[in-house]
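assembly run, all chains below
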Amino acid sequence: MSQPSLWEVWGDHSTSPDKVVLVTGGSGLVGKAIEHVLLAEEGRVNERWVFVSSKEADLSDLTAVQALFDKVKPTHVIHLAAMVGGLFKSLDNNLEFLRTNIIINDNVLQTSFERGVQKVVSCLSTCIFPDETPYPIDETMLHNGPPHSSYFGVAYAKRLVDIQNRAYNLKHGCKFTAIISTNVFGPHDNFVIHGGHMVPGLIHKAYLAKKNKTELIVWGSGLPRRQFIYSKDLAKIFIWALREYEDFEPIIATVGEDEEFSIRETANMIVKAMNFTGPVRFDTSKSDGQFKKTTSNARLLKHLPGFQFTPTQQGLQETCDWFNDNYELARK
Ligand code: NAP
Ligand code: GDP
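ok done. output:
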């Protein structure tokens, strides 16, 4: 989707905002959701939000990161940018996920420290938790054992963000923290079929199967289980953390344990939302990946009691409607 390399959302037209918030990865699924939620906010806050994509600065290049920070002069950072991909991209590229994300994250955190940024909220993923673990998984278990083998590259790179946040806090008192998100989906996702995540990939496959009157092929057995968060719900959690959360300990962002679905159930919800009536087949020659990574949202709800998550079927319907309406422009 056509997008400038840097764009702004002003809460107020004052020339001296209380906060200048830099959002790395602003052109992605989560970044666009944060922009959407801010634009829909009622009441004016004295904040200037600056969203950037990789076209503005390649964050794996330290000089480019420093130049970006000197240009934007952020007081706060939401750090979303990363090498991102689903199971099948990760299986083939653990080395690239490890190195690229270590470099990007170190560049962003060290430059934030050097430029006096007051708070950084980074985005981690629940695939970074130990594979062999009691359930539900909570934040205290992050470093208790190896992650699932399919994701070890991104998992170890992202675990290091938690270690860095702790180290910057102990050494310099920095308020650098992280939200650990479960699988996200929503408008503006990357709907690529090969290399992307399951929900946007299946939505795209269902679109093509409906158009071409073919079967819909779901990869794997359909038995693994996942929790999903709608991108607009995750966006609200990031905005809250940026404004109000003062600790460096990470927080898991997920729906409840009872909102976990099998891949088969999720595929059925997508079939319904896409109004696909053809045959559905499971290709068991493809990997299932991690069987489950059920996480607890108890710490999140302690801070945000009563937080209302969008029901998964409703979020999927809105996402499918967005994809159908924006097919030509969507990333795919
Ligand atoms: P996305 O839609 O693929 O967007 C990735 C963003 O990162 C884009 O804005 C991209 O810029 C930017 N980016 C990538 N490489 C960059 C680089 N070298 N320099 C500067 N910017 C770069 O990803 P997303 O799903 O929104 O993910 C955001 C965060 O959420 C990531 O940290 C990811 O690990 C985490 N997360 C995602 C999921 C999920 O299910 N999607 C689950 C848990 C956690 P361009 O648009 O210019 O390429
Ligand atoms: P994960 O949830 O982090 O493991 O990553 P994905 O979003 O890639 O989901 C992987 C799970 O969905 C595995 O169990 C796959 O077998 C299953 N799956 C079914 N169909 C697809 C598809 O079209 N794309 C992807 N990426 N995974 C699929």
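The radius of gyration is 19 Å.

The chain has one domain: 7-189+227-259+292-310.

not gonna interpret more than that til we talk
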